[in-house]
């Protein structure tokens, strides 16, 4: 199964430890936030969905190596998927291994309406530092902002700023990049200086606090489309407002 032109959700959290129950709570949280969603199917090697009558027990058994296998909703016409993996310390900010959760949301009305609630639920269930939901096309250009090598001198597309590779950043609480919907934990928000009522009125008009003191901040009313000049301008202004993001300035 593949989701084409989907919205990608990704969050970064502290690495799983021992009998950590976060894989189960993350999946359950996503289901609660997306009306009618059931992620009780796995995917076979040839891409076919296989029902999991005892999903939570299976997930506890299969969660290993710092992550958990892909789960989906079994609907090939409107697929929703989620999985987790460990990012090793050498590739992570501050030299701390991370638990990365990725999910694909459909770009239809149900997916768009639920996206902010899903991001908050997944991020807080994972105890994430930061994360985002971004439409696939926009995420391709945003990914090209990262400079992974010193000899990589090609400028990012669309006038976007260069951002450091994750492993070159000093703290996991510094968001690596921006997206359409942005989750910042309480610690990440403090690190980047959000919110500042005198500077963030526009962002606060599209922001919501979370139960743990974090924030979900939406850059544009509609899903981010960088072919739209107003959307590109909103993204550029957000990078200008938060120079700490992407390791471009110290906090």
Describe, in plain words, how this protein is organized in 3D.
It is built from seven helices and twelve strands. With 251 residues, it is of the alpha+beta class. The strands form three sheets. Strands 4-5-6-1-7-10-12-11 form an eight-stranded antiparallel β-sheet. Strands 2-3 form a two-stranded antiparallel ribbon. Helix 1 (22-33) runs antiparallel to helix 3. The model has no long low-confidence stretch (mean pLDDT 94).
End-to-end Cα distance = 42 Å
Strand order across the largest sheet: 4-5-6-1-7-10-12-11
* Sheet with most strands: 8 strands, antiparallel
Model regions low in confidence, pLDDT < 50 over at least 5 residues? none
Task: Calculate the mean pLDDT score and round it.
Answer: 94
Order of SSEs, N→C? EHEEHEEEHEHEEEHHEEH
The shape is globular
What portion of residues is helical? 25-40%
Q: Assess the beta-strand content as a share of residues.
A: 15-25%
Q: Number of helical runs?
A: 7
Instruction: Please provide the count of β strands.
Output: 12
Structural class based on helices, strands and sheet pairing? alpha+beta
- Mind telling me the C-alpha Rg? 18 Å
Key features?
251 residues; alpha+beta; 8-stranded antiparallel sheet; two-stranded antiparallel sheet; 7 helices; 22% strand; globular
Summarize the structure.
With 251 residues, this protein is α+β, with helices and mostly antiparallel strands.
What topology does this entry show?
Layout: E1 7-14, H1 22-33, E2 41-43, E3 49-51, H2 55-62, E4 68-72, E5 81-87, E6 98-105, H3 109-126, E7 130-135, H4 136-143, E8 146-147, E9 163-164, E10 181-184, H5 186-192, H6 201-204, E11 207-209, E12 215-218, H7 229-241
Parallel strand pairs: 8-9
Antiparallel strand pairs: 1-6, 1-7, 2-3, 4-5, 5-6, 7-10, 10-12, 11-12
């Amino acid at each position: 199964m593949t989701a084409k032109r989907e919205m990608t959700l990704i969050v970064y959290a502290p690495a799983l430890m021992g009998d950590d129950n976060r894989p189960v709570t993350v999946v359950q949280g996503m289901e609660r936030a997306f009306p009618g969603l059931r992620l009780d199917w796995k995917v076979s090697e040839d891409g076919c969905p296989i029902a999991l009558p005892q999903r939570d027990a299976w997930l506890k058994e299969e969660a290993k190596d710092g992550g958990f296998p892909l789960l989906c909703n079994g609907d090939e016409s409107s697929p929703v998927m989620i999985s987790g993996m460990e990012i090793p310390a050498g590739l992570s900010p501050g030299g701390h291994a991370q638990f990365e959760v990725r999910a694909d949301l459909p770009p239809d009305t149900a997916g768009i309406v639920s996206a902010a609630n899903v991001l908050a639920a997944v991020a807080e269930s994972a105890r994430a530092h930061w994360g985002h939901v971004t439409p696939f096309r926009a995420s391709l250009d945003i990914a090209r902002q990262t400079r992974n090598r010193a000899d990589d001198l090609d400028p990012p597309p669309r006038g976007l700023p260069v951002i450091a590779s994750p492993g070159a950043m000093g703290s996991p609480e510094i968001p690596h990049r921006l997206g359409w919907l942005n989750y910042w934990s309480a610690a990440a928000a403090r690190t980047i200086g959000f919110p500042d009522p005198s500077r963030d009125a526009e962002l606060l008009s599209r922001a919501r606090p979370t139960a743990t003191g974090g924030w979900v901040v939406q850059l544009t009313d509609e899903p981010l489309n960088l072919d739209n000049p107003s959307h590109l301008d909103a993204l550029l202004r957000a990078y200008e407002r938060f120079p700490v993001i992407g390791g471009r300035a110290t906090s």
